[in-house]
Hints:
Layout: H1 2-28, H2 36-45, H3 54-89, H4 96-137, H5 157-166, H6 178-188, H7 199-204, H8 208-225, H9 229-244
Helix pairs in contact: 1-4, 3-4
Amino acid sequence: MKQIEGERSEIVQKGKAYFKDFMRLCSLYKLTSVRLDQNDEEDEEGPSNSNKSRESSLQEMANQRQSKIERYKEQKRIIAELKELRTHVEKSHVEEEVERKYYMLLLKHWINTVIDEYENIKFELQILEQRPNMAHCHQRQPKEPSQKKSFRPFIITKDQLQKKVLGAGYPSLPTLTIEEFYDQKIKEGTLQIPTGQSLHDWAVEPEKKANDADQKEAEDDEKEDADDPEALAKARAWDDWKDDIRRGDGNRNNMG
């Protein structure tokens, strides 16, 4: 990288010298009154001249800006005239005055180009001269990798309790059967032994409810056949209730 910067700086210095030599010759031939050497001397004296006021500096900057604007307008006009005159110059027979005007405009075009490019060359040289110092100032030592604290997971109480009930994302497997659970509770004395037609009996024996219903219906039929007074009175009361209350009475929501 340093070798490339050194080569570039040498090339730019040569270009600056060629520009200055070109402008010196043009000045000798009375083609321009601009001297690049004079501008360099003013730049070198500028920082040491403490008497130079702020207002004069601003005025000088305004003059330079105005000069650039005028050169830009002049360049546009010169390029347009050169295009027009080139068609005449390229002919086999061309008038001497036309040819002279063409080359004078071409010299003027390059004089303006050199003036603008010379400022760019000086600016690039300043950057190339200051780059080693800037690189040294901005050189930073690599930072030591900081030790990051290990992340310690935390458990929310709600999630923890939920996992105890539902399991870790899937239903937990039962550890006891229903019979073992009831036997354990009976041994602990926290559950009374059910008697009669209870939900427990129907849960243990799903067919018990149907069997009990069939047995009860058979007993009622036997009592009616035996002319049991209690069974006959109950049957008559049921018939009277069905006669008095029609089907659907009391169903006021669905109406039917």
